[in-house]
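Folding Query — how this chain folds
Tokens — whole-number codes for backbone shape
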Amino acid sequence: PETSARKITANSGVTYQIEIQAMWEDKPDGDLRVMGSIDDGGIRAFMPLTDGFIVSPSGELVDE
């Protein structure tokens, strides 16, 4: 899986860590699963807000 993480500071001064991960669902060049999470470094770091989706090679979202 490829992972990208970045810290971003909001206008309020709160710093958030955002992490995006992408991986092939079954085989290379097939459906791609994309997952993201965000936390504020506090208690949320142990239970970040997460979501994800799967996209087909044609760019369409795949129902899970």
Remarks:
- The radius of gyration is 14 Å.
- Strands lie at 2-9, 15-24, 32-39, 49-55, 61-62.
- Residues 16 and 41 are 7 Å apart (CA to CA).
